[in-house]
């Protein structure tokens, strides 16, 4: 029997005690019919659970457990879960996070009950981060977040209709790819102004561990965008040029702030991206420097950022 929602939870090295936090967060939801909820727990080549029956204490949920010997990243595991899910909607949770409150799932159930089905349902989430003095701060992300998978439902039929899947060889920026495309191609997004999810601070996570140099992985960010643009091109998406233009401005500021950890691969990926989108580059290149300067003056994200290297950045792109 088809469920309303499949909650897909990838993990790698979390032990039973750690996984109990996210699972209890699901189990303790109130006001919903748990027969309509499916929980899929997937190991990404890390710690194999000794005995899944330890989670029988969570009497509201039935857990499907899968162990993959090889580690291929959270995107692969989420796709693995989707391929086995029987829910009308997909929802993704990280193994080191939890719901913000016990009525989080009810918020989504009520949207479907009151307004019918939607291609994507987006609620809000809180990010916990650590200060230098060891204390924690919290940031509530805006409702129009199209990058993180947190606090969102994706209609399975819609995802299958547009042919979208997680990139199996992308271990970072996988959310930006999947969530961005799902939202950008949708004509039916329901925004729920409720905080339902909390992204807890884990200093060992892919994004937050300094050893991973996440922000310096610019070659991977370019590679992700290559795939992003190719997907939109195949769909004959009318805003492809606009997205491409915005990307190149964003890339300038990223490169200005973070030195690429792999400069050679970064150059290769840029070369391939421009070759694959030569038509878009020819249309836009004469406006690039001006747009970089305007963004620095008018866009809150890039306000008063230096644009002194814009000319050399243009030459770099034009000559690779």
Write a structural description:
The chain is α/β, with parallel strands linked by helices. The protein folds into two domains: 3-208, Alpha-Beta Complex (Spore Coat Polysaccharide Biosynthesis Protein SpsA, Chain A); 213-319. Helix content is 41%, strand content 19%. The chain is built from eleven helices and nine strands. The longest helix has 18 residues, at 240-257.
How are helices and strands ordered from N to C? EHEEHEEHEEEHHEHHHHHH
Which regions contain 5 or more consecutive residues with pLDDT less than 50?
none
What Rg, in angstroms, do the CA atoms define? 21 Å
**CATH class group of the largest domain:** Alpha Beta
Major beta-sheet overview: 9 strands, mixed
CATH topology of the largest domain: Spore Coat Polysaccharide Biosynthesis Protein SpsA, Chain A
Shape: globular
Strand residue content: 15-25%
Mean pLDDT: 94
Q: Give the N-to-C terminal Cα separation.
A: 54 Å
> Portion of residues in helices?
40-55%
The CATH homologous superfamily of the largest domain is called Spore Coat Polysaccharide Biosynthesis Protein SpsA, Chain A
Number of H- or I-type helical stretches: 11
Oligomerization category of the chains in this entry: single chain
Per CATH, the architecture of the largest domain is Alpha-Beta Complex
Instruction: List the domain count as a whole number.
Output: 2
Strand-pairing-aware structural class:
alpha/beta
The count of β-strands is 9
Write the layout of secondary structure elements.
Blueprint: E1 3-11, H1 16-27, E2 37-44, E3 63-68, H2 74-84, E4 87-92, E5 98-99, H3 104-115, E6 120-130, E7 136-140, E8 152-155, H4 156-162, H5 174-184, E9 189-199, H6 218-234, H7 240-257, H8 263-276, H9 278-284, H10 288-298, H11 310-319
Parallel strand pairs: 1-2, 1-4, 2-3, 6-9
Antiparallel strand pairs: 4-8, 5-9, 6-7, 6-8
Helix pairs in contact: 5-6, 6-7, 6-8, 7-9, 7-10, 8-9
């Amino acid at each position: 029997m088809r469920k309303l929602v499949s909650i897909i939870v990838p993990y790698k090295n979390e032990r039973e005690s750690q996984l109990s936090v996210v699972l209890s967060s699901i189990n303790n939801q109130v006001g919903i019919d748990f027969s309509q909820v499916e929980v899929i727990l997937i190991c990404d080549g890390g710690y194999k659970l000794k005995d899944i029956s330890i989670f029988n204490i969570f009497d509201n949920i039935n857990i499907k457990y899968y162990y993959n010997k090889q580690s291929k990243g959270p995107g692969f595991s989420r796709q693995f879960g989707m391929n086995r899910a029987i829910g009308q909607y997909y929802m993704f949770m990280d193994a080191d996070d939890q719901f913000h409150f016990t009525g989080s799932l009810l918020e989504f159930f009520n949207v479907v009950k009151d307004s019918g089905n939607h291609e994507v349902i987006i609620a809000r989430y809180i990010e916990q981060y650590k200060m230098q003095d060891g204390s924690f701060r919290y940031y509530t992300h805006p409702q129009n977040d199209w990058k993180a998978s947190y606090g969102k439902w994706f209609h399975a039929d819609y995802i299958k209709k547009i042919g979208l899947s997680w990139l199996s060889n992308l271990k970072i920026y996988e959310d930006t790819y999947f969530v961005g495309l799902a939202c950008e191609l949708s004509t039916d997004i329901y925004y729920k102004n409720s905080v339902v999810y909390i992204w807890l601070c884990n200093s060992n996570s892919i994004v937050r561990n300094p050893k991973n140099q996440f922000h310096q992985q610019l070659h991977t960010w370019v590679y992700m965008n290559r795939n992003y643009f190719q997907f939109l091109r195949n769909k004959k998406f009318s805003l492809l040029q606009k997205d491409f233009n915005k990307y190149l401005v964003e890339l300038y500021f990223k490169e200005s702030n973070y030195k690429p950890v792999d400069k050679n691969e970064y150059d290769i990926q840029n070369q391939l991206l421009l070759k694959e989108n030569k038509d878009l580059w020819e249309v836009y290149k004469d406006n690039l420097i001006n747009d970089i300067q305007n963004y620095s003056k008018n866009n809150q994200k890039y306000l008063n950022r230096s644009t002194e290297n814009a000319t050399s950045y243009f030459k770099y792109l034009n000559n690779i």
